[in-house]
Amino acid sequence: MIDPVAVLGFFTVAVGFFLLATALVPILRVPGQMRSLPEKLVVEGPYQYVRHPIYLSHFLLISGAALACGALKVSLETPIVLGMAAIGGKYEESRRLLPLFGRTFEQYRAKTHFLLPVWGWVVLGFIYSLIAFRVFFLE
């Protein structure tokens, strides 16, 4: 029988790869983006919804792979990766993007989510609650 947690893991990995691919395309089109001085602020593709889709995709890939392999305890530790991404993202915003783009970046930041919209945090919390329940009470 197929484990539903493994299916969730494979789905999460697929979403992570899709998000990574769609986030890299607009980044690679902007000269200087992969160095420290991009010529324009990228707001297309997934960047119109979240400011750090590459960090989010890394989280989805790691947690999804752990779920797909049955490493449920490892998957419960992956929010640490999301926390590190948040620290890196805040640093990047304050030290790099805000000085470069000023008011344009402030307007962008006001209308987009950092990593996830509210409903995304709710879904993530629900999934992690189910995984924690399975790890601590059913295994």
Which secondary structure elements does this structure contain, and how are they paired or packed?
Elements: H1 4-29, H2 53-68, H3 72-77, H4 79-111, H5 118-138
Overview of this structure, please?
This protein is mainly alpha-helical and 139 residues long. It has one domain. Helix 1 runs antiparallel to helix 2 and helix 2 runs antiparallel to helix 4. The longest helix is centred in the C-terminal third of the chain and has 33 residues. It is elongated and about 50 Å long.
The proportion of residues forming helix, as a percent range, comes to over 70%
Order of helices and strands: HHHHH
Class by SSE composition: mainly alpha
Number of helices: 5
The N- to C-terminal Cα distance equals 17 Å
Number of strands: 0
What would the average pLDDT be, to the nearest integer? 90
Which descriptor suits the 3D outline?
elongated
Sheet having the most strands: none
Low-confidence stretches: none
Task: Give the count of structural domains.
Answer: 1
Rg over alpha carbons: 17 Å
Strand content: under 5%
Summary of the model, kept short:
The chain is mainly α and 139 residues long. The protein has helices at residues 4-29, 53-68, 72-77, 79-111, 118-138.
List the main descriptive attributes of the protein structure presented here.
single chain, 5 helices, elongated, 139 residues, mainly alpha
